[in-house]
Predict the 3D structure of the following.
Amino acid sequence: MNLVELHRLLILAGAALLLVACVTEQAALPVRIDGVTMGTTYSIQLHELPAGIESDQLQNQLEELLVDITQQMSTYHPDSEITRFNQIHSTDWFEVSLEFAHLVAIAQQLSELSQGAFDITVGPLVELWGFGTRINAQRPTDAKIQKLMSSIGYGQLEWRHQPAALRKRAGDLQLDVSAIAKGYGVDVLAEYLTGLGVANYLVEIGGELRAAGINPGGEVWQIGILQPDTGTALANRVLALDNQAVATSGDYHNFYVENGRYYSHIIDPRTGYPVKHQTTSVTVVAASATEADAWATTLLVLGEEQGLQLAEQHAVAALFLIRQAGPGFRLVASSNMPDIVDEQ
Ligand code: AMP
Ligand code: MG
């Protein structure tokens, strides 16, 4: 891990606690595997190990899968598929793994549904605003932002499955899949565990989670939601995950304040500027963590009004936390959002 990565890890470690740290009190968990990946932490909870596998062995297997993902999609790896694709200026097809092409296809679908609010070609803006591989908490000039806008746009990116490849329509295009990669990683680990015959688990990377089966207390897994400002549980309420995934996107996960103004790492690719509205976070529950992760970022870019409209249109289960004049937050949920129940 280089210094930049370590720095990011320290920033993200706090943010990552959002959902996980508050898994409600349950019977003692017999197996827990923890580690570091994608500039953040991951954790796996199981009732018991699959037959014939030691904890260390299972951890090695899971970490191999995570290494594969970072080799494909991490902009921190000098040699990853995404880094090499970002470095070329050619508009020819560039071969990538099927997994990466598949993830790009999902991202592109979200871009179309949201008319560009979600856009993995936002990479150059993320770098310019200082939230990328070079940490530089300084507001860029308007002229620099405008200059970059011509190299942003999901319409300038093509993908295909056979053979798996990506193509830039504009040579300057740069990808950043941070808004979807953690969720994808969670799904890869979850599906691997399912393949091993593990029926009950909770997999988490950087706060994005996927649950299967029941917790050791014999109930569906229950997840607490923390309040962004205080880090305390939101009115002691919990979300039950019935073989579902959940992801949260928050404007406070990475930000800086300059001259009294707050700049978040969530960037509106349509304007080139960080989002500036009262929605501070969006939590999405979905069948897969990839979907939940991508939708959470999309809805946070859109904010309460447009985000809720799009969530309803596509039957997405979403919870918006909105800043208000007084203390605490206003909660707005889409119709499909499971009830958040009072903790017993
Ligand atoms: P998440 O925490 O999943 O919401 O992802 C946030 C990260 O996604 C940011 O740190 C950026 O790297 C990237 N990002 C920022 N804005 C967008 C956007 N509008 N569409 C896609 N990715 C974005
Ligand atoms: Mg996301």
